[in-house]
């Protein structure tokens, strides 16, 4: 069992408790494969041939265990059975109480992180800054092209927080070398997956080379706390089905298992284990009751999380604008540039995907 002890997971099963106070778990327990409700630990295969990565399984295309399920044998057949669903608590009507709960949960989660052999992935936004604040003696890393938003934001935030920042400067040769490695790690060659995973992989690779075994990341904050533009006015945004901010946020949380599988496989392939304090159960419990206006408004996203950061982080870091990693690092832009230079023009269907596939085929 990875991520929690067997006693805790067995009790969670017995009590149908989806959030038993862990940071996620997966593994074999009492003859069943078990994966936590948010899928924070990937899990693949069958009862006789399983692992935390597809590479650990003899089957060429092992099937992932769905989040919140056990995979077990019933009547001679291997079946997936849902045992946990994410709670849907009543909306908190007391704004002060809601923000206090988020602040306590986040502070407890980030300060509880063991900082031995640890580095922090740091973009200069409030998510990674909160993680970094919990481990004040830990070096911070950012990856991006020299003129990337994330590099500039990380430098500004690191200076404001008096932190050691190490910049992984990217170039075209680095991207071309890493694309096949990332595709192998994620099992995907689509441009979106690869462009998201590349900066994570390259930061993790540098972190591992510098002698660290673990990388703390801010994953989960955007999903839990209303960080996406598509949740701001969901009734008029066709990217979500929900019509309320809270409903759209729940919808986005549902994408976490697939995203976490991608990120975990990427980081482990680069040689580090991910640490995700903003996805611990205590933080999830504090986020779920938040009302619409403490998630996202037309003027501000991640409202409650930013309130939790006030007085702990510098004001400019609390309010810092954040870009998705593939855009903030300029990896997406430069992959497109490389694709066009290689003859894959924008008029072609999936031109960056085709370029990625060509690099994989040529590796």
From TrEMBL:
It comes from the Archaea. The keyword Signal does not apply. One of its GO terms (molecular function) is ATP binding. Residues 102-231, 255-346 form the Asparagine synthetase domain. Keywords: ATP-binding, Nucleotide-binding. Residues 1-22 are annotated as: Disordered. InterPro entries: Asn_synthase, Asn_Synthetase, Rossmann-like_a/b/a_fold. Coiled coil: none annotated. SUPFAM superfamilies: Adenine nucleotide alpha hydrolases-like (SSF52402). PANTHER family: ASPARAGINE SYNTHETASE, ASPARAGINE SYNTHETASE [GLUTAMINE-HYDROLYZING]. This is Asparagine synthase C-terminal domain-containing protein.
